[in-house]
Amino acid sequence: MSRGKKMVEKVSELMDKPEFIRNIGIVAHIDHGKTTFSDNLLSGAGMISEELSGKQLFMDSDAEEQARGITIDASNVSMVHEYNGKEYLINMIDTPGHVDFGGDVTRAMRAVDGAIVLVDAVEGPMPQTETVLRQALKEGVRPILFINKVDRLINELKVDPQEMMIRLGKVIDKVNKLIKGMNEKMYSEGGWKLDATNGTVAFGSALYNWAVSIPYMQKSGISFKEVIDKCNAGDMKGLAKSSPLHEVILDIVVKHLPNPVDAQKRRIPIIWHGDKESPEGKAMLNCDHKGAVTMMVTDISFDPHAGEVATGRLFSGKISRGMELYVVGTAGKPNRLQQVGIFMGPTRVEVEQIVGGNIAAVTGLKDAFVGSTVTSNQDIAPFESLKHYSEPVMTVAV
Ligand code: GDP
Question: Does the beta carbon of 151 lie inside 6 Å of ligand 1?
Fold first, then answer.
């Protein structure tokens, strides 16, 4: 069987088991390395070829698409990752780094349950780090931290191991202070306080494709000194082999970021204000695929072959081709789903059906727009409208 076909089978199998799904986004200040990080994560997980990674795949989707003859949706990708002998489906939504696109960050945060906050080790958290973190926490999205460009601390700033610990500790403290200020309850009681020793923080170099966390160093036997020595010696390839970025990061994602079933119990009361005791409310809270269909559209893109593709988070129910769904707030007739797809790597693949907890990409929703609530039952209350905070804390409707 071809590798591609095998991957389709794996993804199709995992998408029916929400406990094995993680929906995540990456948020960062511009230039902190999000594009480099996302590309290397994807190529490390074997979802795009290594030659394509590092070439700003997410930004050059048109050229890529023509070159490869496939449809790439630049903003949604999926990966399969093995952790403790089990495979997981990781759906990643891209978020723009520029604050002008703050609305897009909010949309992405609605679709995911966890966020990797990426911070440049040299610059530390910047104003946009605060803005995007605020957007994530407001949507009930759990953060973990990746401190990037650590190679620069070693090779350019020539810091010794002790100084490095101090610098990394300062970045962690600053981000923790932000999280505490934004959601004291989850910080103190929900386990959202970042802690290098429990593995909710990793550091490394997206450019050179390596990362470490304290649990990973303990597991693999690699020491802090070895990392610094290898970096000093310019042995980036060796580091990328002994502590590959995707392994370290995706382990953290699986271990510390919530699956949709756990996340929705906490997130639904934040993003949906309908009756939680109603059958639809219960279906959403429990990510129940036997309940009503509830989906929030977070992105609309145009595919030259398929037309308008609406992508969003399916919170409950099951969708399949031909199904008739209502777009809440439009008085018209229900829309009939034409194609129902998910992402495999950066490619949209048509599937038979999709259950709650997944990111779905569908065609046929002609009345939908970004922010639409799509349901099988016309009477269901819509999701909270998408609002985003632009700097410093002004609320703007999008
Ligand atoms: P984005 O704006 O957050 O998407 O950032 P990019 O991924 O485009 O990276 C911004 C710049 O930082 C580029 O020149 C990258 O090559 C560089 N960069 C990204 N990650 C690293 C890293 O780990 N180490 C070093 N030295 N440079 C990096």
Answer: yes
Angle between the N-to-C axes of helices 161-182 and 224-232, in degrees from 0 to 180, rounded to the nearest 10: 110
Mutate-to-test residue for ligand 1 from 26, 34, 35, 36, highest number of ligand atoms within 8 A of CB: 36
Ligand 1 in reach of 142 Cβ (< 6 A): no
Ligand 1, atom nearest to 36 Cα = 7
* pLDDT tens digits along 315-372: 999 999 999 999 998 877 999 999 999 887 777 888 999 999 999 999 999 999 999 9
CA dist 371 and 37 (Å) reads: 28
Write out the H or E segment, with its range, that includes residue 264. Answer: helix 260-271
Residue 50, pLDDT > 60, answer no
Block residue for tokens 């410093």: 392
Q: Ligand 1 mean position to 54 CA, how many Å? A: 10
Q: Ligand 1 centre and the CA of 35: distance in Å?
A: 7
* Virtual torsion, Cα 257, 261, 265, 270, nearest 10 deg: 60
Q: Extract the tokens encoding 167.
A: 């610098």
Q: What letter would DSSP give residue 339?
A: -
pTM (2 d.p.): 0.90
- How much is the pLDDT for 1? 54
Q: What is the DSSP string of 181-212?
A: HH-HHHHHTSS-S--GGGTSEEEEETTTTEEE
205 lines ligand 1 (CB under 6 A): yes
> Rounded distance, CA 113 to CA 124, Å?
24
Sign of CA dihedral 32, 36, 41, 47: positive
Count CB-CB contacts under 10 A for residue 143.
25
Amino acid letter, residue 68: R
Ligand 1 neighbourhood includes 370 CB (under 6 angstroms): no
From the CB of residue 275, how many other CB atoms can be counted at a distance below 10 Å? 12
d(CA 206, CA 35): 9
Ligand 1 pocket, 119 CB below 6 A?
A: no
C-beta neighbour count of 215 within 10 angstroms? 18
**ipTM for the predicted complex:** 0.99
